[in-house]
């Protein structure tokens, strides 16, 4: 019974399973070290794999001794055969670590006599083979990507002085935009037009389902708009639209929060909404300003692409312009009513 209760000591090793905290720390360190080269992050991953191998080796070492200790060190166990019964803890740990490493590194030279030790040796050997292949794959991935870093355009940009001297938020926008442009040129510009439509429809699927404009449009017109959308990325505080500038783009929010401001009110736009469309459709200068509140992933439609769409769907675009004109008139009437309501209260207060 006492030997069985000794198994409770094994539960204290669960504290060693707090390795995910270290994993989260490594990921946080990678995010903080964005100013450094991408290769540094890959080397950190390799070091983490080495650390995990050392932890597993330590666990195996402790279990090697624990299996014999829970049975009261029988006469045919490896500790008695090695004359380690009265040795120090350090010497026992050294022998146990060598025994564990030998079983994990290559098939053990001497076959264990006890059944428990045979199972322990078999499990150690399987774990050793698994660790070897994981480490080999990690090394090939790390150094293979390092050798090809010169061909990676993103890595070239990150290693340039012009990139490293920019603020963190601007660097993140540059990397996101570069990845989109590379994906567009290497995939979208290579595949057929029909496949390109399916890919863009999948990329913008969430936007098409939520956005009110896409719901009201004809399917063919929606596909034509989706094909012309360009991905844009903004960090918190970035200005997306400046008031009284040329309305050459309208924007759709894929993810994030945008603050839209006009002469009379502030509005927060969320996922699936759009902004900058009224001035864009009426050919006027922008009457609003827009600023990113969070990290935003947007899709923009340029005026040049919209004019090409208008040639294919003139009636739909005409209806859109009429709706935009009506919305503008309603906004003006609503603002006039608000002014008329507030004027008596201000005069009475005076």
What integer value in Å does the Rg equal?
33 Å
Low-pLDDT segments: 146-151, 337-350
Beta strand count = 8
List the strand order in the largest sheet.
Answer: 1-8-3-6
Order of secondary-structure elements = HHHHHHHHHHHHHEEEEEEHEEHH
- Largest sheet descriptor: 4 strands, antiparallel
- Helical coverage, percent range: 55-70%
Report the portion of residues in β strands: 5-15%
Helix-strand category: alpha+beta
- Quaternary status: single chain
Shape summary: elongated
- Count of discrete alpha- or pi-helical segments spanning 4 or more residues: 16
State the separation between the terminal residues, measured CA to CA.
Answer: 90 Å
Organism: Danio rerio
Protein name: Potassium/sodium hyperpolarization-activated cyclic nucleotide-gated channel 3 isoform X6
